[in-house]
Design a protein that fits this description.
Blueprint (H helix, E strand, L loop, with lengths): L1 E3 L2 H13 L4 E6 L5 H13 L2 E6 L9 H6 L4 H10 L4 E3 L3 H4 L20 H4 L3 H16 L3 E5 L3 H13 L5 E5 L19 H7 L1 H12 L5 H15 L4 E9 L15 E9 L2 E9 L5
Parallel strand pairs: 1-4, 2-3, 2-5, 3-4, 5-6
Antiparallel strand pairs: 7-8, 8-9
């Protein structure tokens, strides 16, 4: 595996690869890698002849400094895991390499309603930071394909819209969420959970499944309340920030299952001091 810390050296290498007509797949990460990230790498390897992974903890997408400071950083273990799984190129820049002129204004995108609900409402400025860093990384890597996980569903929709706005030729792929045996979505933040908290956090996915199971007998509003009640009953001192059933394309809340061809239930829950997100795409309904 080749490891690059500077844009200049990375781009020199990638230019040679493109001159050989290699297709480049890109997996951007913030490190603290787990099997979910490795599944993205595997998808990229299936579609492309060269896979580039980046590790960069982006300060502009954290609206809480404490969250940024506590974000897990396991660089040596990450490098070993990528090597073991056949990653060809790792881009490992520092903040100054990505943002050499920090006083320059970040690009501003009009995402319409997509950045308003859920994460947008509870993490002001988060998606501006996400769009800023993904735009920058795409400018640097210039991949043919971009691979992102479903766990960050709203982020996926934001990046999809950003690519449309910029008329980017990059093909975006959404890869399924990987889960622990308990159902807990794999996340870099899971390592901050105590054993008891990890056990309780598994109820987040079960609450989403409860919504799916309720579709035949309850309208969305009542299914949502049932899921929130479930979380409060099964997670000690549960702190759900939101649990919303929304149109999978517009992210607008649905009042009836037939309001959208595809719906998704999304949630963010604090378990102890750890904020976890998850979602579940729901089967289409006609009634």
């Amino acid at each position: 595996m080749y490891l690059f810390k500077t844009i200049k050296n990375l781009q020199r290498y990638l230019l040679a690869c493109k001159n050989r007509n290699e297709s480049i797949g890109f997996v951007p990460t913030m490190g603290a890698l787990h099997e979910g990230h490795i599944s993205l790498l595997a998808f990229a390897q299936q579609h492309c002849t060269l896979t580039v992974c980046s590790i960069f903890v982006n300060p502009t997408q954290f609206n809480e400094k404490e969250d940024f400071d506590k974000y897990p950083r396991t660089t040596e273990a990450d490098i070993a895991l990528l090597e073991q799984n056949g990653c060809k190129v790792l881009f490992l820049p520092d903040v100054e390499e990505i943002y050499p002129h920090p006083d320059n204004p970040a690009p501003v995108f009009d995402f319409g309603y997509l950045d308003k609900p859920m994460e947008g409402a509870h993490r002001p400025g988060h998606f501006n930071g996400v769009a800023q860093v993904v735009t920058r990384l795409l400018q640097i890597v210039q991949p043919h394909h971009l691979f992102m996980g479903q766990k960050d569903y709203q982020q996926y929709k934001i990046i999809d819209k950003m690519l449309q706005i910029t008329q980017s030729p990059v093909v975006l792929h959404m890869c399924p969420t990987l889960r622990e045996p308990s159902g807990l979505a794999m996340s870099s933040r899971n390592i901050r959970l105590s054993p008891k908290e990890r056990e309780q956090a598994a109820h987040i996915y079960r609450a989403l499944l409860l919504v799916q199971q309720s579709m035949e007998v309850l309208p969305p509003k009542q299914a949502r309340m049932a899921a929130l009640n479930y979380l409060e009953q099964h997670i000690q001192n549960a702190q759900p920030e939101y649990l919303e059933i929304v149109n999978a394309h517009t992210l607008e809340r649905v009042q009836h299952w037939k309001d959208a061809a595809q719906t998704v239930v999304c949630t963010a829950v604090r378990v102890g001091n750890v904020r976890l997100i998850d979602n579940l795409l729901l089967p289409p309904q006609t009634t």
